[in-house]
Write a structure and sequence with these properties.
Rna Polymerase Sigma Factor, Chain: A; mainly alpha
Length: about 110
């Protein structure tokens, strides 16, 4: 697909948009608009709404930072974004468990 200087065509795939964002970073906003609600809902079901706000923002910050490594043969960024979200949710729960255990140990030491 040839990129139009005015922007990607309406039917542009996520890969097209990410490719364009490599030289025009502001184009990544389209990925955010396409996926944020779904990623936020996914995280909300795993960590709760308030934490999902922060983690969803982090998903897109990481995706933006890693966009040079995105596999442009994959038209949909969904699996990539969900993978980042899953990893962040797992890290969140491991940290919560560690905090809980530390708190429990500190209370039993008293």
């Amino acid at each position: 697909m040839t990129a139009d200087p005015a922007g990607p065509p309406a039917e542009a795939t996520d890969a097209d948009v990410i490719r364009l964002s490599r030289t025009e970073p502001e184009r990544f906003e389209e990925i955010f608009r396409r996926w944020f609600v779904r990623i936020h809902q996914y995280l909300g079901g795993r960590v709760g709404g308030r934490i999902a706000d922060d983690l969803a923002a982090e998903v897109f910050a990481r995706a933006f930072a890693q966009r040079e490594r995105y596999d442009l043969t994959r038209d949909s960024a969904g699996p990539w974004l969900y993978g980042i979200a899953t990893n962040l949710a797992g890290t969140y729960w491991r940290q919560e468990r560690s905090r809980y255990w530390a708190l429990a140990r500190s209370r039993s030491a008293c």
